[in-house]
Design a protein that fits this description.
The protein is built from 20 helices and nine strands. Among the domains are: 146 residues, Beta Polymerase, domain 2, CATH 3.30.460; 41 residues, no CATH class. The longest helix is centred in the last third of the chain and has 17 residues. By secondary structure, it is α+β, with helices and mostly antiparallel strands. A hairpin with a 4-residue loop joins strand 3 and strand 4. The strands form two sheets. A seven-stranded mixed beta sheet has the order 3-4-5-2-1-8-9.
Length: 378
């Protein structure tokens, strides 16, 4: 198989690959860029694997006038900056000893040894500067074309190295797997056996994976499998998957919003490190779901985007169809402007003024935004 595309033909990419190759070292683009290009998915980051040792990479970069940043020298990674673009260049590695996420590694000259320490077969693919794909372990290309997410080697061993791979397995299935195929049975069994290890993971890592998983086009089958094997309860205690598939159906072609999907799952989010903005919006969604305000009022109070999240989530949770014209109602509310201002009540000040404005606003909302300024002040 031969890949092509602007990401590979990019002069900066070719410069870095050529820098290493012309010095007699093996150099390949690797991992996500190869996987995505082969699947016709946008390529964002381009990582490079090489037989050159880190100090050799830095020496070559210096001689060529490229900036070299020692971002992970103990792990063999140097970031080269070419034409303003950063490329992580990592020396082939093999595991000497594994102890959780942090392994003792040794540098290698064998691309197959490097491939054997990666997580999934579809990520253990390499390509040279001309785009020719190399599958050192065999089976990676077949798995990729079949959209089959399979661990490299023994699933239990890969999971024991890093328990975050349990979540990555479900996330990769949601993003790249074939929904009709289902999940790999051996991998599912290994995930079920290893769910206790999720408790060792940081909130930052769990949150990052859940964001990506719930942002997939249809995460419902993968999340259902997570629940079945016990992984979901470790991440979102008390979560209920019942409304997730109906929500995805109701969303239709709308861009997926991971926080909306998190809201319908429910459960405690203590194991996720949410930002302040995410916590605020999740709280607003859950509060509105409990209070059940009209679509137009939601649009006015919270804006069109968050109001849309709430209407979709409410319909999914209740098992009801979306009411006709719901989006127009949200827009109407979002564009409505309360006609009374503080200057209209010059005789009031401080808390009394605030209370009066709030009461008038409530009357105006109850009138479906129709009461005029004169009516409200009369």
């Amino acid at each position: 198989m031969k890949l092509s595309g602007a990401w590979l033909d990019n002069p900066a990419t070719q410069t870095v690959l050529g820098l290493l190759g012309q010095a007699g070292h093996q150099a390949y683009v690797v991992g996500g860029c190869v996987r995505n290009a082969a699947l016709g998915v946008d390529v964002t980051d381009v990582d490079i694997a090489t037989s050159a040792r880190p100090e050799q990479v830095m020496e070559l970069a210096g001689a060529a006038g490229l900036r070299a940043v020692p971002t992970g020298l103990p792990h063999g990674t140097v970031t080269l900056v070419c034409d303003g673009q950063g490329f992580e260049v990592t020396t082939f590695r093999r595991d000497v000893e594994t102890h959780g996420r942090h392994a003792t590694i040794a540098f290698s000259d064998d691309v197959a040894e490097d491939a054997s320490r990666r997580d999934f077969t579809m990520n253990a693919l390499y390509a040279d500067a001309l785009g020719h794909v190399i599958d050192p372990l065999g089976g990676g290309l077949a798995d990729l074309h079949a959209r089959r997410v399979r661990f490299v080697g023994t699933a239990a061993h890969r999971i024991h190295e890093d328990y975050l791979r349990i979540l990555r397995f479900f996330r990769f299935h949601a993003q790249y797997g074939d929904p009709a195929r289902g999940l790999d049975a051996d991998a599912l069994a290994a995930c079920a056996d290893g769910v206790g290890g999720i408790d060792q993971l940081s909130a930052e890592r769990l949150g990052a994976e859940m964001r990506k998983l719930l942002a997939a086009p249809d995460p419902a089958p993968a999340v259902a499998a997570m629940a079945q094997c016990g992984a979901l309860a470790r991440v979102l205690p008390g979560a209920d998957i019942t409304a997730l598939a109906p929500l995805v159906h109701l969303e239709g072609p709308a861009p997926p919003r991971w926080l909306r999907r998190l809201a319908v799952l429910g459960g405690a989010t203590d194991r996720l490190r949410l930002t302040r903005a995410e916590t605020r919006d999740l709280t607003r969604i859950r509060a509105a779901l409990a209070e059940n305000p009209r679509a137009a009022e939601l649009g006015y109070r919270l804006g069109a985007e968050l109001a849309g999240d709430i209407c979709l989530a409410r319909a999914a949770l209740l098992g009801h169809p979306l009411p006709e014209g719901w989006q127009a109602e949200i827009t109407r509310g979002a564009e409505a402007r309360f006609p009374v201002r503080a200057r209209d009540l010059p005789h009031l000040h401080g808390p009394e003024l605030g209370a009066a404005l709030k009461a008038l606003e409530a009357r105006w909302i109850a009138s479906d935004f129709r009461a005029s300024r004169a009516t409200l002040l009369g």
